[in-house]
Each structure stands twice: as structure tokens, then as C-alpha cells.
Amino acid sequence: MPTILITGTSRGLGLECARQYAEAGWTVLACARNPAASPPLQALASTHSGRVKTLSLDVEDHAAIDRLARELDGTAIDVLLNSAGTMGNGSFAKDGLAFGSFGRSDYEDWETIFRLNVFGPMKMAEAFIGHVARSNQKKIVTLTSMLGSVGINRIGGLYAYRASKAAVNAMMKSMAIDLAKSHGIAATALHPGWVRTDLGGPQADIDSETSVAGMLKVIDALTLETAGRFWVYDGSELPW
Ligand SMILES: NC(=O)c1ccc[n+]([C@@H]2O[C@H](COP(=O)([O-])OP(=O)(O)OC[C@H]3O[C@@H](n4cnc5c(N)ncnc54)[C@H](OP(=O)(O)O)[C@@H]3O)[C@@H](O)[C@H]2O)c1
């Protein structure tokens, strides 16, 4: 069976992706900042013992990413899934679009958001390209957001998060072009929908099970021809 490496599996969408890929029989390399601090991740690992392997990884720590890539040297990774992400210190669930509004920029928070949401997936792709290239499926997927679409932004706000996901989109588009040619890898950005997680808040449209079931189908269908697009969990597409 294939292997997937997922970042941010302690909770939210990363955890649900780990669960659904494990249930589908995949080997799951489940990365989290502190796996021991996530009881659901520990439970998943013991349910699928041997096939769900938990690994400590802070995606903001590039030396740690390089170390893990070296530890996994020789392992084929069919799908590299960058799920870890943040909206920063504020709470979208509490403050909605008012959070991160004009005139109230916290530049340290901008840096954290960019380190995790943008530099993290870029560094993961650069560190693990060899592992993905030696696999059968050869896919790199980064979770983006509809809030990163410049084309459909009618309501403003959320500067840092929007900018970080627009950057993810630009990055995944370039990766799709470059890595198809150099390694036969299909890379894309994927919007999970507005999902009821800590990040999405309780008012969001859908639950993680629905989002992830859809994302698995989109990732499964991803080819070199359909790479480099702004996919949505339900198989539709968004404008950049
Ligand atoms: N939920 C939505 O509605 C929605 C919509 C569009 C896009 N997205 C995107 O989907 C992805 C997952 O979001 P989510 O809703 O699952 O968020 P979440 O429930 O807040 O979970 C965030 C995950 O990221 C991890 N993380 C935070 N900082 C990290 C770091 N430095 N290194 C490694 N992991 C770190 C967290 O781990 P800890 O437990 O250690 O903090 C946690 O596992 C994000 O990229 C987000 O932008 C979500």
C-alpha cells in the first residue's frame, strides 16, 4: 500500500486525514509538534499499530525538517500533504473578519503565519522531494484557503492569512510546473472547505469527516495534467 506523510496531525484536518488514510490501508507518517500531547493521535497509532507512525516535527524548524528527511532516507512517500497551518494569535472563530483588520497589523504574528503557512510547505517540499520522486504516486499537496483567492475577495480583512494562502497558491503553481518536468511530480493547492476545526470555528459549513473524504478523492484523482490548480475538497475549482 502507498505511504503518505502529513504535517500537523495532532488535531483538525491533519488528524482526520491521518485517520482516513489509515482506514484506507495506507502507511501514514503522522507528523506533529508533540505527538504525545495528542490523545486522538496516540489512539490512532495504537489502533493501526505499525502502519501509523507518529513523528515529532515542528514545521517552523528547518533543521528538524532536514533531520527527519535524513532519518527517512530511502523511504518512498507517495503523497506529501502539508496540512499544518495557522491564522495566527487572534481567533477567527471569535472575531471573524475583524480579526487581523487594517490598522491593527501585528507583524510578529505575520511572521509566524508566513513561517508556518508558506515557508513550512516550501521547505517540506524541498527536503522531501527525493522521497516523493522515488514513490509510485508522486504527489505534493498543500492545504490552501478560499481566503487566498484574490479573484473572489469581496469583503476584505484577514490580511496576513489571506496573503499567506495567496503565497501558497503561487508557490504550488510554480512547483506544479517545475516538478512535473524535473521529477514527474504532481503538485497542487487544495482548499478543504470551511471546516469545523479549532481554526475554522464552530460556525463553519462542514465537519472534518466530510472535508477529508472529499479531499481524499481529489488527491486520488490528481495527475500531472490536473496539477497546479486551485482545487476544492468537493472537486470544484476556485479562481486564483
Ligand atoms: N478549518 C478550515 O475551515 C480551513 C479552511 C481553509 C484552509 N484550512 C487550512 O487547513 C489546514 C489545517 O487547518 P485546521 O483547520 O486543521 O487547523 P487546526 O485545527 O487549528 O490545526 C492546526 C494544526 O497545525 C499544527 N501546527 C501548528 N503550528 C505548527 C508547527 N509549527 N509545526 C507543526 N504543526 C503545527 C497544530 O498542531 P498543535 O496541536 O501542536 O498546535 C495542528 O495540528 C491549515 O493549513 C489551514 O490554513 C482550514
Question: What features would you describe in this structure?
Answer:
The protein has 7 helices and 7 strands. The chain is of the alpha/beta class. The chain has a single domain (3-232), classed as Rossmann fold. Strands 3-2-1-4-5-6-7 form a 7-stranded parallel sheet, with helices on both faces. α1 (12-23) crosses α7 and α5 runs parallel beside α6 (159-183). The longest helix has 27 residues, at 107-133. The mean pLDDT is 96. Bound molecules: NADP nicotinamide-adenine-dinucleotide phosphate (NAP).
Total tally of structural domains: 1
Beginning-to-end CA distance, first to last residue: 34 Å
Q: At the fourth CATH level, what is the homologous superfamily?
A: NAD(P)-binding Rossmann-like Domain
CATH class: Alpha Beta
Q: Which ligands appear in the coordinates?
A: NADP nicotinamide-adenine-dinucleotide phosphate
Helix content: 40-55%
Poorly predicted ranges: none
Count of helix runs: 7
Q: Judging by the overall fold, what is the CATH architecture?
A: 3-Layer(aba) Sandwich
Q: What is the chains' assembly state?
A: single chain
Q: Strand arrangement, largest sheet?
A: 3-2-1-4-5-6-7
**What's the story with the biggest beta sheet?**
7 strands, parallel
Order of helices and strands: EHEHEHEHHEHEHE
Shape designation: globular
Instruction: Give the percentage of residues in beta strands.
Output: 5-15%
